[in-house]
Amino acid sequence: MGNEQTLNRLEAKTYRVQGLTCTNCAAQFERNVKSLPGVKEAKVNFGAAKLTVWGEATIDELEQAGAFEQLTIREERERPARQEPFWKKKENRNVCIAAALLAIGWATSTTDSGWLAVAAYVAAIVIGGYSLFRTGLRNLLRWQFDMKTLMTIAILGAAAIGEWQEGAVVVILFAISEALERYSMDRARRSIESLMEMAPAEATIRRGAEEMTVRVEDVRIGDVMIVKPGEKIALDGVVVNGASTVNEAAITGESLPAEKAPGAAVFAGTLNGEGFLEVEVTKRADETTLAKMIDLVEEAQAERAPSQAFIDRFARYYTPFMIVIALLIAIVPPLVMGGDWLDWVYRGLAILVIGCPCALVISTPVAIVTAIGNAARRGVLIKSGVHLEQIGRLRAIAFDKTGTLTKGKPAVTDVIVYEGTREQLLAIAAAIEKRSQHPLASAIVRKAEEEGAPFLDAPVDAFQSLTGKGVKAAVGNETYYIGSPALFTSLIGELPDEAEERITAFRKEGKTVMAVGTADRLLGLVAAADPLRPSAPDTVTALRRLGVAEVAMVTGDHEQTAQAIGRQAGVSDIRAGLLPEQKLSAIRELKQRCGITAMVGDGVNDAPALAAADIGVAMGGAGTDAALETADVVLMADDLRQLPYTVRLSRRTLAVIRQNIAVALGLKALALAAAVPGWLTLWLVVFADMGATLLVTFNSMRLLRVKE
């Protein structure tokens, strides 16, 4: 507890790390950083290639801590440096020199100058494997058996028994494998780098009468940002002047541009269309929706999924076990059966190389990194690998109604007139409801605006809210009432039969009915409904095709409305009139009956139900801090169609992880079976191990192609 309080008082500084290729290297780098004099604590996020340091350390000191892996460190918000060509990197130049020396050794091995061939092989081993040996020998002295330790033992063992050519080939193949791993892991991490590059590094702002271009870190809340046509928006804010369309695909994954006018919110990283915008900045650079997305994705990539945790535990015992097997194969046959020492030591070295768990250990994290990054680019935030795996195993899903299956914005659907004209009825209703804050009042005002009813100039006096019933006000010389049919029953007695029939029919359709009239007569009826999202029926159908056994709706609305919306959406289990604690009970019952269950809501309401579900899914995370913070999965675009895509992505990820594990273990099993009788050479074993690692990585990168 005391250590946590100390860390909270210290400022955490975050850096980007380039060159991390394996989890063991990440763990070693973390230990090295922790041992630096000014560092109190350090944490390495392998998936995101990120280092967080509590305390004081220079970039030079951090790079020295990562020198064993030639790691490059840069500030978190600093744009990634342009990649150097392959031949310009020092470690790759050494590989090229070693390969040339190996070729010289091959060329001279057939001549009488055998010593020249051996010298060339030795030089190739030393030059190509210098950094490998430096790390491997240090780890060996500490009894840390990672990939480099095993390779060092194997190469030195090959040299000790006179297999110089084999040792040189192994060094070069291993170096090439390392270079390819770095390249492929960097490709897998590009999803995060691309998110970081979406927002401009500078913004044009107006302070007083002066316009200036400044770094986004120097922009203050309240500054007015100038966004020209075709420019990217640098920071979150609210439009104060101008109108345009903005492509928000970077945040929401939605390709259709959104209309922006004064009062509309805009987000960092989105692309302005053809209009000129002036935007008042509402969030600092490190607080924007895009910055929060990046942080959440990187945190998700740092958390180990269940399958990854299992693989890590397995590898912890697997590597020492393979070392013991290799040792037994090297010494038992010569001692017990009189076998040739050189032959059996060579086979033991081959087993040692087979024992390298790199492909196995990387099989899960590279898939998780790729999948979560792909989802983020398409507007879906998945908070951890645990939730990514659980989504693929979903058996039941429960939807809230308002704002989830429906648009959450009531609209007038029917206007029935009994006295006067439609225009007069809408004008009276809108003039009164303009003074109300109720969502249904807003629906009536919008309808009057759409139809051009003259309500803006109508004189309204003595406005009064009738709690639970409606409102009344004087328009001109007449007092009018708008409210529930029950209000008019209390005013004028029984309603006309035709009106009662209409009210009953509207309610069966899930509509809310408001009556308009005076204290002694009914002028008309206005029916409104929260319309179903057009994508809801297709989403429910797609989820069922994906094998989700139960699709339910849990809502606090009354039974008739819930049944109408549920039928339109195709939901099989409709539960209406539920209080928050009853929704919680419904989710628990679904979990008990069906298994892994998700709850889809707005991220603010229904908090108990979202928390009780195995996976809480929030709608519309763009601009909603509460949704970003509370849910396990956030659909940034407020689009239900992202849900089946997320389930498909999860299931594809689970399949890829299984394939990766099968490839890693399968190739090792084949190599082991071939190495014991001596059918497999040392360099072929290295080639097989390198192939397994690359197959696992490139197979995981196929997840980038999963689309909506």
Automatic annotation (TrEMBL):
Membrane-protein topology: Multi-pass membrane protein
Catalysis: reaction(s): Cd(2+)(in) + ATP + H2O = Cd(2+)(out) + ADP + phosphate + H(+)
EC number of this enzyme: 7.2.2.21
Transmembrane stretches, start-end: 115-133, 317-337, 349-373, 655-676
InterPro entries: ATPase_P-typ_cyto_dom_N, ATPase_P-typ_P_site, ATPase_P-typ_TM_dom_sf, ATPase_P-typ_transduc_dom_A_sf, ATPase_P-type_domA, Cation_Transport_ATPase_IB, HAD-like_sf, HAD_sf
Assigned protein family: Belongs to the cation transport ATPase (P-type) (TC 3.A.3) family. Type IB subfamily.
Protein name, UniProt field: Cd(2+)-exporting ATPase
The organism of origin for this protein: Geobacillus proteiniphilus
